[in-house]
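Colleagues,

Please find the record for the two-part complex below.
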Amino acid sequence: NAGVMQNPRHLVRRRGQEARLRCSPMKGHSHVYWYRQLPEEGLKFMVYLQKENIIDESGMPKERFSAEFPKEGPSILRIQQVVRGDSAAYFCASSSRQGGFYEQYFGPGTRLTVT
Amino acid sequence: DQQVKQNSPSLSVQEGRISILNCDYTNSMFDYFLWYKKYPAEGPTFLISISSIKDKNEDGRFTVFLNKSAKHLSLHIVPSQPGDSAVYFCAASDPYGNKLVFGAGTILRVKS
């Protein structure tokens, strides 16, 4: 399966705990994007990364959220000290950005529930 | 500030007929537009895209039309099938392609 992989698919955390969401891009893709979808809303951009670099983090909350895409391994979205408002679906996308085309291909998402 | 708007929360169409989903945008810097389809508990699936230098792009049953002067695009599905029932998201990209800005989505129901 050469699609975007995300794990876990479902994650339950108590308030104050840490959440780690993982994303492996499609084979051949080196650009990773994270989006968040709150109930009844569209997807909202959070961060865009290339290997070992954060390119655009204009959608990331200023505190508690961080993202990385190391040289080896998946991209990680980390949420520290989670609060109930962090409950949402988090989607990762990847692209190749070749030929001027910017289609992004999405993973199945991680549904985070904060209790 | 909603830069991409899908003003119809839902649309119901008979099987075999045409489905038309609409999308408006406000940012004239957007130069690439995409449509995604999403089933519950799954990620969005890329359907079709269009560059701002074109006014139409076709792929099988799906056609996207772009009217730059009106800042409006539409997705036509002909003929509509029950399996097309899903949420459809319009998205726009700036020239740098660093992020997609999504509309709130339109729920399409195709009745058999």
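Residues 46 and 62 of chain A are 11 Å apart (CA to CA).

Comments are welcome before we finalize the supplementary table.
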